[in-house]
Each structure stands twice: as C-alpha cells, then as structure tokens.
C-alpha cells in the first residue's frame, strides 16, 4: 500500500541514502568535503538546530520539527502541513554549523525547491556569504544564485524569517 504523506512524496524524488534515509541531489551537493567552497564551515550545531525548531514551531503552528539524530544531528527537518502556494505540504531541511554558517532548503510535493544559505562560496555574486538559490529547483548555477533576503546569523531571527516566507 502506497504512503501518500508529504514526507513519502519527498522521498520518492530523492536519491542516495545516508544514515538509513534518502538524500536529495541538492542535499548531497550541500554536504561536500570540508574544503569545498559551498560547504558549511565547522561541525553541525545541535543547540542552534534545537533553538531554530523551537522558534519556528512557536511562530508556525502547522509545523513540526525533528532532528535526524537527537544526539549527533546532521540536520533539522521541519514538516509543514500546508506548503508554500498551492502545495499540500512542504519541508524545510535546516543545517547550522558551530561557526554560524547555515543552509535552509525548502521542498514540497510539487517539486518546488529553494534555498537560503550563509557560508563562503565562489559564486561571482553576491559579494558576501548570504545567498539564495531560487525556485523552482534551487539552482546552483552561478547565473541563478542571488543575494539573500535573510542576511543575519542570529538563530531566532532566521527561524522567524523562514517561518514567515
């Protein structure tokens, strides 16, 4: 019997597995080696992920967040009962490092993807670490990446801004 939950719909469009769960191509690109210019600097910060989840859930009652591992997480997954626009459901995958770098990837049941990042990069623009990978596929092509509307590193502010999108 097929599982028609939004979470299973996301899984059907992803490839590869890590820690017993499937990862999307976009996710794999985000988790390159430490010396890759599009990677987060520093280890994942569990405390920041938990704070992000708590702040997000407080602002958005139709969301539920969960760390992929409570003791040694690599990401926070926030599932939305109601996605962006006409989507029946969506999900934010959040990664936050101890150095204050982060990426927030949104995907939904329609195949709509976008991502906000703050980390070092080698794109010609923008000139700082804050950048946005626009929909519909969160493109990483240099000509598509643009400056981000989220330019802060404070967890509570980023969580609130993300919830208001």
UniProtKB/TrEMBL annotation:
- Biased amino acid composition, Polar residues: 7-17
Regions of biased composition (Basic and acidic residues) lie at: 19-30, 43-56, 125-134
List, alphabetically, the Pfam families matched. Answer: TumE (PF20126)
Report residue spans for region: Disordered: 1-73, 125-145
Q: What is this protein called?
A: Uncharacterized protein
Query: Which organism encodes this protein?
Result: Natribaculum luteum
């Amino acid at each position: 019997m097929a599982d028609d939950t939004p979470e299973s719909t996301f899984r059907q469009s992803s490839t590869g597995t890590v820690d017993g769960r499937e990862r999307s191509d976009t996710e794999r690109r985000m988790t390159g080696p430490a010396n890759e210019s599009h990677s987060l600097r520093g280890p994942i910060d569990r405390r920041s992920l938990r704070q992000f989840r708590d702040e997000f859930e407080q602002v958005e009652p139709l969301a539920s967040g969960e760390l992929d591992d409570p003791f040694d997480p690599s990401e926070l997954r926030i599932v939305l009962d109601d996605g962006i626009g006409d989507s029946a459901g969506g999900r934010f995958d959040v990664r936050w490092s101890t150095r204050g770098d982060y990426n927030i990837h949104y995907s939904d049941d329609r195949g709509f993807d976008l991502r906000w990042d703050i980390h070092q990069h080698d794109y010609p623009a923008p000139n700082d670490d804050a950048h946005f990978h626009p929909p519909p596929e969160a493109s990483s092509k240099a000509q598509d990446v643009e400056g981000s509307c989220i330019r802060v590193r404070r967890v509570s502010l980023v969580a609130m801004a993300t919830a208001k999108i």
